[in-house]
Automatic annotation (TrEMBL):
GO biological process: carbohydrate metabolic process
Alphabetized Gene3D superfamilies for the sequence: 2.70.98.10
GO molecular function: carbohydrate binding; isomerase activity
Annotated protein name in UniProt: Galactose mutarotase
Top-level division of the source organism's lineage: Bacteria
Pfam families referenced in this protein's UniProt entry, alphabetically: Aldose_epim (PF01263)
Amino acid sequence: MIRIENESLSVEIAELGAEVRSVLHKGTELSYMWSGDPAYWGRVSPVLFPIVGRLKDGRYIAEDKTYELSQHGFLRDTVFKVSETQADSVTFTFESNGKYQDVYPYEFRVEIGYRLEEDRLYVEWNVNNLEKDKQMYFSIGAHPAFRVPLKTGEEAADYKLYLKPVKEEQVMAYELVDGLIRMKDQPAVLPAVSIQSALFENDALVYDKIEEVRLESSKGNGVAVSLPGFPYVGIWSKYDAKAGTIAPFVCIEPWFGIADTTDSTSVLSQKAGIQQLAPEAAFTTSYHITFF
């Protein structure tokens, strides 16, 4: 486990998946990340690659071949190398080296950087296509889970979601049908929404053209995830249909990609939200989380 810290935050990150496992705010004395209790969901903040969400029939077609790949891909279960570290920042690197040719026909390198600035955690992704003569198709996404409630005596209903759309853009909402995505007929309406189990009865809430999602308690504590330039965001908690309850966390997920659509052709280059990289080219993006 790697720890980075500054005057405001102490963050622990595992080499497995380059996954943030805990964030402690020294001012509020609150721990913000979900514990990873497998009774609900055994992960904390996995990085999703080379797909986001589920594939139709669990398969896709690339380079004239059919591959099988489970939901969210394989990067979350790989061990990264620490390539650079300072007191308040760290960079993790993973290179494929032929290990995934049976499920993904491209050679790649992914670098994940974490940097602290005051009460914010900055996350940067660099995806490199190592192929010399092939276009590479991929998606990448974040899946951080935040504790709800943060304090003893609070309830989930004490927390609200605030979504800030990209200026002058019309936000569309999507629904999941057996894990596959479908755009809703009407543009999204974005009032502040209280956290209630019914929100997640049909899986995640998914939107496009959102630049910030804020999750805040009535007492003023919470997180703000700033994701300028990201085409999609998912908001999710694990729903228990039998009990009609949700797990004690809410995920806010910036995505460069999305689950297959219900009418998907399964061809990777035609997949909704897919990113394309020229041979030996690189893709870089970042988002940040403010803890308060």
